[in-house]
Amino acid sequence: MVSTISAARERVQAAAERLFAERGYKAVTLRDIAQELGIRQASLYYHFPGGKEELYVTVTERGLQAHREGLEQAIAGAGASLEAGLRAVLQWLASHPPVDLARMLLADFPAISEEHRKRLTDLALDCLVRPIENLLQAAQQRGEGRPVDTRFAALAILSTAEAMHANARLSGKEASDLVETALPVLLQGLCA
Question: Using alpha carbons only, how large is the chain's radius of gyration in Å?
């Protein structure tokens, strides 16, 4: 019985995670999630008694943790150069659905409780921004690149990855095919 409950809960989380990622918190209803799964809306409360917000927080936490693990592994396996680290970060982000951190911070998080908003904001920083900040700080300590605000640069890198996904949709390419296009823009800027 426990494995059936776990499997059902996992199906709910997977469907909710995909819908929230595609549309954002405000645009997704429990009815949408139930329809996606072919179940009654009331059944969702069995797994998530706190409703939509509890479900959103759960899947967002899970997704952010997965991103942290993936980014940290990509960076650790990339080698010591800034270019290799950035390539690994961009490849990892390109090979996963876009995070849309700006939408999360500007639209999704303000629609949930203060407690959850603060927790998810802190988690987003820990999971998405800090691994990239650490990469950039290590490169600066090695004398690679010029001194920059590493928080701003990390957010710019995340935005670049989201732009790769947008460009892929517009061009019909894969986001991972755009890593070598994005990398020189990040490393050298627009003016050489």
Answer: 18
